[in-house]
Sequence to fold (213 residues):
Amino acid sequence: MILKNFIVFEGIDGTGTTTQMNNLGKRFSAEGNNRICFTCEPTEGETGKLIRRILSGEVRVTADTLAYLFAADRNEHISGKNGILRLLETGYAVFSDRYLFSSLVYQGESGSPDLPEKLNKDFPLPEYLFLFDINPETAMERVLSRAAEKKSGTEIFEKAEFQKKIREKYKTVIEWYKRQEPDMNIITVDASLPPEEITEKIWTVVKNMPKIM
Ligand code: TYD
Fold:
């Protein structure tokens, strides 16, 4: 099932999806559109918080346990109180920084290859999927300078070799969806372009999202 007015951003670590969410937020506000909601995975919920501790390396679990946790977090994100379904029903457009495609790619690459698909096959799909593509070297430079700025460490997946595999896996997963789900709009974004230029490109696609009357 495809959810209208649901938009997802995906890509390897360090592609700038969070910056784009912020830029679009400002753009929608300037247009007087307050019917837009920005969200992300892992979520701010309790499962999401546990996932963050795992990603930082503080808590250790198997790769497959992490796949289950991401799916549980996602279920709450979609179906929980004030979740994405509820927001869409009440007339919001929802942008999510990552969604099930991250699980298919990251957990597919790090754990049992078939498990992410089993866990994620019943979640609804977005109307638009923007895949932010960039070479992993540039992305890792961004990740490392951000970590230095924040005086924080890097997360478990933020390693150049792994990110290279992830970029390739995204391409495979996206090709599969293009064939299987032609009604889902998949747009690849060149994430090496200046941020304002990227915002402009996305804006041309999403500017007509619902407005409060
Ligand atoms: P990310 O959006 O990069 O968070 P931040 O930039 O704020 O640290 O997501 C955190 C990490 O979680 C990233 O490496 C991708 C990973 N991830 C998965 O492995 N599976 C998933 O299902 C999701 C949603 C994220």
Observations:
- DSSP finds nine helices and five strands in the chain.
- The first strand starts at residue 2 and ends at 11.
